[in-house]
Amino acid sequence: MEVLFFLLILAAEIKGLQVEGPSSPLVVQLGGAVVLPCSAQNPLPQEGLRVEWSSDSGSVVNVFQQNEIRPELQSLAFRGRANFFPDQISRGNFSILLSNITGEDAGVYRCQVYTDQDSSETTVEIKDVERLVVTGAHHAIITFVGEEVILNCSIDSHIPVHQLEEVTWTKHPDILVLLFQENETLSESSHERYQGRAEFFTSEIPGGNFSLRLKDVRLEDKGEFICKVHAADLSAQTTVIIQQIGPSSLQKFILVLCFISFALALGLGVPVFIFLQKEATTRRVLVMYILAAFCPNICMFIAFVLWSTEGLLSEVLICAAVSFARCLILMKTAPYLNTLPERLVKEVKSLGFPLYCSIIITAVFSAELTHYKGSSFILTERILMLTGLILFSIGAVISAKFALRISSFLFLVQCNGVLLAFFLHADSTNIQDIVTTTPSVFVGMILLLTLQRHFFQQKPFKRLHIGLTSAVVAVACMMVIGVFIFIGIYSGNVTQMWRLPFMAVIFIILWITLVCLVRRQHNNNNNRFCAKWRGLGYMCCAVLLSISVLANGILYLHFIREYMRSKDYSGYLALTVLLHILPPASLFDHPRNIQKIPHITLYMFGASGLSIVTSLTLGSELILKAGTAERTLPEMYIIILPFECLFVLGWLALQIYSSWMRMRGRIKRNFEDEEEAEAQAGEGSEEMEVRASLTKTPES
Ligand SMILES: *[C@@H]1O[C@H](CO)[C@@H](O)[C@H](O)[C@H]1NC(C)=O
Ligand SMILES: *[C@@H]1O[C@H](CO)[C@@H](O)[C@H](O)[C@H]1NC(C)=O
Ligand SMILES: *[C@@H]1O[C@H](CO)[C@@H](O)[C@H](O)[C@H]1NC(C)=O
Ligand SMILES: *[C@@H]1O[C@H](CO)[C@@H](O)[C@H](O)[C@H]1NC(C)=O
Question: How far apart are CA 636 and CA 639, in angstroms?
């Protein structure tokens, strides 16, 4: 045996020809290039030299023969990508460069070398073709809102799936949709936009199918999704494009509703306008009036409610409430109001604005509550404010029902106060400014209203009135002192807040003095002011009152602007303006003789114009959003509310004008005759006469 072995070695040495391959199998990268080594120890004579490379499947890789390379003999699979090093052949180096490696190149290669006398061969093994190929979708995806899409991403790699470092799905630009790391899907690390909406097909992952299931598609999902894979030192990615997201059937339905509302507002608006000018009040025309006032707004209300699946909840709440409650003030401002059933008319006249205001305030408050979800805002504080708000709103409506318009006004102003406190919650640095200014203005309003009513108008001294107003003053004082105690306890900074208890004491003293004065004046019948002085005093009160209402609104705007710098407060500004026009609007007596043209114009603006604005806003927002996948308006009520404000302001102006005309008549007739007429009119209508010509501007 040993002898045989020895002989073999000897034979080899005598022959002198021996080619050598690599010492170990090769590992190559897909698409890369590799040298397949094969060389003799000594240079070989070129004459009669033949080198033949072949694969284990028998394909010819390349051939050197008769002093030249013979590419024409190559098999198709290797043509053009398996080359000798021509300058190395003369040195006995027959290595080959194999480039553009494919998955099929793995295998054993044979290098056979022949000379005239001799031959030798060696083998080269390509053990592994490393590869990481990621394929995505064949085409861009078109889908609909609310649907589910599958974004393809499959991985072909020599690396087993559980050894992949990570697979990430991102939405351009750089929003993490879903992450797979070290054999685990980490769905918690997804961007909040994709929380719970994106997942892998877990059972498909071992097969390298990392397709993403995206549920409940939204408009903002439009765009590029990138599936990126990292493994060892390799990485690869593919892009899937969601090209178009069509409107869902719900969105189409909302659009149809907007269109219906628009068409109704326009289509019914024109005949209503014509009939109103003719003062037609037949039954059929009346039905048309009502339809024209209600249908467009109800349509928009439904549209907004349906839209809650997509819009911000706060926005939806406010817009829906405005659309719904608008019906109320349309009835109140309708020129045909007096032709409706008498009981209804009475309710609408007294409750229209307070109810409208309460509905909107409630909606705004609920919207605010949804904003502060999960913040550190103390729960008891929230509940306290909510209770206060509900009580004040109910108080406003009930007082209006019993024709106590002053109390109704005061309650509504209080509601606004609570809302402001809620807007600016938690920021205790500003609380001192607010607490020292707003209650003063508020108590000032109370004093002026009382003075006007009991002193200059000499309305009967009613316990109910004085009692209610005293209660409001007491609540205001209690709130001031409550804040003092609260801040004193929490910050220990009592000395800085000394103004607060001082203020409360002044309020009480002023109020008691006023009540005594009024009482005395009332009992002392002989000592009445002459009519001229009363008219003057009355006017002064009216002017001061309107200034304080304005001041109150400006203060609120100031606080909101000042302390909401971090936020986008334009929505709040629109809201604040509306909420401050409403209380004065509800303070007024229902005007009696308004000129026809301005009245009809204003009403048509409310009935048709506002519905058109609302439907156009929602409709165009939907369409624009479908185009750009982005919101164009931060909040839709930024557009809707200013128009609403215009309408209410117009009505307020009409009320002021009508009230002013009556005032002038009264001063001429020295008040006295009027009072007799009032006395005859009876108890019920007495309160309706409260002359609260409020927002009369100083120029008038
Ligand atoms: C043969 O030539 C190739 C290409 O120049 C070179 O990489 C390889 O090292 C050479 N082999 C030997 C044994 O010299
Ligand atoms: C995703 O892959 C499946 C299966 O290969 C195929 O039927 C489907 O058309 C692919 N989708 C896209 C958008 O390319
Ligand atoms: C990878 O995860 C799958 C599914 O969770 C599991 O079946 C498999 O055993 C894991 N592989 C390794 C190597 O951990
Ligand atoms: C991945 O798996 C899902 C679920 O079975 C299938 O719908 C999808 O077509 C697969 N993707 C590919 C590229 O095979």
Answer: 6
How sure is the predictor about 601, in pLDDT bands with cuts at 50, 70 and 90?
very high
Q: Among residues 325, 271, 305, 366, which one has the least CA distance to residue 604?
A: 271
- DSSP per position, 392-428: HHHHHHHHHHTT-HHHHHHHHHHHHHHHHHHHTTT-T
- Cα of 319 vs centre of ligand 1, distance in Å, is 79
User: Has residue 566 got a pLDDT over 60?
Assistant: no
Q: Residue 249 is inside which H or E element, if any?
A: helix 249-278
- The winner for highest mean pLDDT among 80-84, 187-191, 232-236 is 80-84
Residues 377 and 425: their CA atoms lie apart, in Å, by: 8
Nearest ligand 2 atom to alpha carbon 136: 14
Quote the ligand 2 centre to 142 CA distance (angstroms): 13
Q: From atom 3 of ligand 2, which residue's Cα is the shortest distance away?
A: 152
Which ligand lies nearest to the CA atom of residue 40 in the structure?
1
Is the predicted pLDDT of residue 127 greater than 90, yes or no?
A: no
One DSSP character per residue, 161-192 reads GGG-SEEEEEETTTEEEEEEETTEE-GGGS-G
28-32, 380-384, 393-397, 667-671: which has the minimum mean pLDDT? 667-671
* Cβ–Cβ < 8 Å for 487, 496: no
Q: Quick check: pTM over 0.85?
A: no
CATH classification (class only), 16-130: mainly beta
Q: Are 568 and 634 in contact (CB under 8 A)?
A: yes
- What is the C-alpha radius of gyration for the chain, rounded to an integer number of angstroms? 44
Indicate whether residue 162 lines ligand 3 (CB < 6 A): yes
Determine the length of the chain: 700
Q: How far is the CA of 83 from the centre of ligand 1 (A)?
A: 13
Which residues are CB-neighbours of 252 under 8 A, at least 6 positions away? none
With beta carbons less than 8 A apart as the criterion, state whether 42 and 34 touch.
no
Determine how β-strand 223-231 pairs with β-strand 234-246. Answer: antiparallel
Phi then psi dihedrals of residue 15, to 5 deg: -60, -45
Ligand 2 mean position, distance from CA 181 (Å): 24
Confidence at 266, pLDDT banded by 50, 70, 90:
very high
Q: Are 217 and 150 in contact (CB under 8 A)?
A: no
Which tens digits make up the pLDDT trace of 371-409?
665 555 566 777 778 888 888 899 899 988 888 888 888
**156-184 pLDDT, tens digit each:** 888 888 888 889 999 988 889 999 988 88
Q: Take residue 470 and report the two structure tokens written for it.
A: 């005293």
Residue with CA nearest ligand 3 atom 3: 183
The mean per-residue pLDDT over the stretch 246-258 comes to: 86
Going from the C-alpha of 686 to that of each of 351, 529, 551, the distances in angstroms are 17, 21, 30
Question: What is the average per-residue pLDDT within 280-298?
Answer: 90
Rounded distance between C-alpha atoms, residue 172 and residue 224, angstroms? 5
One-letter amino acid for residue 43 of the chain: P
What's the token pair of residue 335? 């020129």
Q: What is the pLDDT of residue 687?
A: 36
Q: Specify the CATH superfamily of domain 132-246.
A: Immunoglobulins (2.60.40.10)
Helices (runs of H) and strands (runs of E) counted in the chain: 17, 22
3-class DSSP state of 646: helix
Q: Is 243 in the pocket of ligand 3 (CB under 6 A)?
A: no
Could you tell me the residue ranges of all domains in the chain?
Answer: 16-130, 132-246, 247-354+565-674, 430-564
Identical fold between 16-130 and 132-246 = yes
User: What DSSP line would sit under 10-39, residue for residue?
Assistant: HHHHHH---EE--SS-EEEETT--EEE--E
Are the CB atoms for 91 and 34 separated by under 8 Å?
no
- On whether the CB atoms of residues 292 and 607 are closer than 8 A, the answer is yes
